[in-house]
Amino acid sequence: MSDVSIRFGTDGWRAVIAEDFTFANVRRVAWALAEHLQASGRARQGVAVGYDCRFLSDRFAAAVASVLAAADIPVILSPTACPTPALSWAVVSRRLGAGVMITASHNPPEYNGFKLKGWFGGPALPEETQQLESILARQEAARRPGQEPPRGMDLDEARRLGRVEEADLIGPYVEQLRRLVDWERLRSARLRVVVDPMHGAARGILAQLLREAGLEVTEIRGEWNPGFGGLAPEPIARNLGPAIEAVQRLQAQAVLVTDGDGDRVGAVDATGEVVDAQRIFALLLQHLVEVRGWRGAVIKTFAGTRMVDKLAARYGLPFRETPIGFKHVCEHALKEDVLIGGEESGGIGIKNHMPERDGLLCNLLLAEIMATRGRTLAEQVRALMAEIGPHHFQRRDLRLSAEGKDRLLRRLAEDPPSRLAGWPVERVDPLDGYKLIFGPSRWILFRASGTEPVVRVYAEAESPEAVEALLADGLRFVDAVAGA
Ligand SMILES: O=P(O)(O)OC[C@H]1O[C@H](O)[C@H](O)[C@@H](O)[C@@H]1O
User: Fold this and answer.
1) Which of 110, 173, 242, 316 stands the most exposed, by the fewest C-beta atoms within 10 Å?
2) Ligand 1 environment, Cβ below 6 A
3) How many angstroms separate the CA atoms of 484 and 476, rounded?
4) What is residue 1's predicted lDDT score, i.e. its pLDDT?
């Protein structure tokens, strides 16, 4: 049995390259996937394999393809790095049995990962990843100690036998995006924007689409750089310094940002103010209902903003809250008509596309919003908050010791604080981590990440000062319990 425990967390298996994310371990997962697909009857439908711009991602993807081909499973292999939504679109549009994306998404450069997509294009549902994990454990138990899994077949041989076909995944995906955006409106607005793919897999693609629509576009962080310039490719304020600098220098109306694999969205306004994913979610929901006239259920994961609940109620749309992880949004999208589903982390998916997050599409829609309203994103956010009330949000990620984390979670389960920053806690919601609720717009959530060794503390309130106060007292509580 290997001494590495391979677990599919919030989305896929992630590990440090060369430490645990090794060719042998990637092959282990691929062999387990092959058996799982054969057992579930999806093997003949084939699998799309894609990868991002991280160190060795192309080689790990080739290793996956050669194992699947050895198991006689047809593989569509991307010849270039591609965004995750392009891989997902290949699964949906070609009706494949599954998709594999080699990416660690927004995580720092030393990580890589194995994201599994279900036949519907979104992240594999929990029951599927559990099956995969148990097959993996069984296959490992059957191996002699120290024995590595077989390497799979020679890729050239697999190509000759027609088991591996290289096919462009980006072109068909871009065609799909062309169907989803109001290009005429974009063309008429003559916007000037900066596009920031954070050295990730959307580089060149979003900028090109916007240029074709007549926008004046400058792309930053578009070069291939698997070190990501020293900043994790996660579109949150602390990593957006270059975007803030560029928007001011170029006097652009916005920066449109995607994460390392292009499934998350972020933005910066003309003034350099970060428009976080909470606000983007609210703006997209407002746009889809008020401008496009679309309807359907609204799905939000647990750390999402209350703006979304309020908007859903105002528009009379069904509203559901799920644990963190887009797979939970997918569970709903497979059962009911979902208008929009999304997360605080910037993964947002919309109707008439696929049950999957799409950072490129969300950015195109942000440009469409600016073109439609004639306002910058921050102006539009202010107009929205004038209608539904102010909402401000912050998140901190804390590196605690394993014991500290356990102590904190135990304390929250058994004896959570009854007040923070002087405000009494009305109730505690333990859906995913522990959310202390203080009123209709004020809450704080403590939760262990499923993708990184951190505890996340999220807070929302009606003013920046109230968020600060809540967070400061929340962090004092963590410090006292866990010794952060
Ligand atoms: O907070 P974490 O457990 O690290 O998860 C943060 C995010 O990770 C991945 O990107 C998942 O696909 C998302 O669904 C999730 O929101």
Assistant:
1) 316
2) 10-11, 105, 324-326, 343, 345, 347, 449-452, 456
3) 9
4) 41
